[in-house]
Amino acid sequence: MNTQHLRLWEGPPDEDFVPRLDLYLLPEGIVRGAVLICPGGGYAGRAPHEQAPIATRYNAAGFHAFVLQYRVAPHRHPAPLLDASRALRLIRRNAEKWDLHPRYIAMCGFSAGGHLAASLGVHYGLTGLDIGDELDEIACRPDGLILAYPVISSRAFAHLGSFHNLLGQDPDPELLALMSLETQVTVHTPPAFLWHTAEDATVPAENSLAFARALNRAGVPYELHVYPKGRHGLGLAEEDPHVATWMDLSIEWLRDMGWP
C-alpha cells in the first residue's frame, strides 16, 4: 500500500517539522469506519513501532487508518491538541471522498499519544481549538477512544516527563490540573477501550484505572484490560502472545460499537 500524506495546516511551514496525516486508505467502493493513530513518545517524539504496524493491522480488519504526525517538544500545549483536532476535522471533511463514515472515527493513542487522544476526547469543546476557518464548523469529537498504556493523570502516578515536555518545567497549576484527564470526564466523553500492563514501571497502570473509574462514574461505556506482565511501550506486543490479544480485542470492541 502506498501511503499518502496530507498536511494539516495551509501556508508555508514556519519550522522544520510539518504536522501531517499519513493516510492508510482501503480500496474505494465500501463505506468503512476509521482509526486515527497517535504514536507515543513522551511528547518528545513519535515512536515508529506505534505507527505503520498499527495502521496496517486496522486496515487488515477492514478499517481505514491514519497516523497523526503531531508537534512535540519544544512545542507546547495546545500545539499537539490543535494538530489532533485539525486531523479529525480533515478526516470528516474528506469522508465522502475516502468512502469513510464520518460518525465512526476512533482515536487510538499510545502512552503520551494516549494522553493526546484522551485529551481530545474530553476537551473537544474548548474554544481554543477553533482557529477561524471553515473547518471550525466540523466536529472534532472522536467517536471512540482506544488507549494503550496511556498517560492520563498529572497528579499521582504521573509520567512527569510527558507533562514537562507538553507544558514546560514549571506549568501553571490550573493548566496542569486541566490536563489531568481523569478529572475531565463527562457524560459526553466518547466510549473507550483501554489496556495496560500491571508491570509497567514507566506509566503505571493506575493511569488507565483512574480513567476507567471516571468513565464508570459518568456512565460512559468502556472496556479495560490489565495484563499481569509486560513492559511499557509494547505496541503490537508481538513478543508476548497474551498481551498481543489487545489488538483483536480492540477490533472486536469497534465492531460491537457499530464500526462499519
List key phrases describing it.
260 residues, alpha/beta, Rossmann fold, eight-stranded mixed sheet, 7 helices, 19% strand
Molecular structure report:
The protein is built from seven helices and eight strands. α2 crosses α3 (112-123). Helix content is 29%, strand content 19%. The two termini are 21 Å apart. The longest helix is centred in the N-terminal third of the chain and has 15 residues, at 79-93. It has a single domain (17-256), classed as Alpha/Beta hydrolase fold, catalytic domain (Rossmann fold), CATH 3.40.50. α6 (206-218) links the parallel β7 (192-197) and β8 (222-227). It has an eight-stranded mixed sheet, with helices on both faces. It is globular and about 45 Å long. It has helices at 52-60, 79-93, 112-123, 160-167, 173-178, 206-218, 245-256; strands at 4-7, 20-24, 32-38, 64-69, 100-110, 144-148, 192-197, 222-227. By secondary structure, it is an alpha/beta fold.
- Can you tell me the residue ranges where pLDDT is under 50 for at least 5 consecutive residues? none
CATH-defined architecture: 3-Layer(aba) Sandwich
Can you tell me the CATH class?
Alpha Beta
Separate helix tally: 7
- Helix fraction bin: 25-40%
Looking at CATH, the homologous superfamily is: Alpha/Beta hydrolase fold, catalytic domain
End-to-end C-alpha gap: 21 Å
As for the CATH topology, it is Rossmann fold
Number of extended strands: 8
Major pleated sheet:
8 strands, mixed
Radius of gyration: 17 Å
Number of domains: 1
Strand content: 15-25%
Strand order of the largest sheet: 1-2-4-3-5-6-7-8
Structural class: alpha/beta
Taken in chain order, the helices and strands follow as EEEHEHEHEHHEHEH
What is the averaged pLDDT score?
96
The outline comes out as: globular
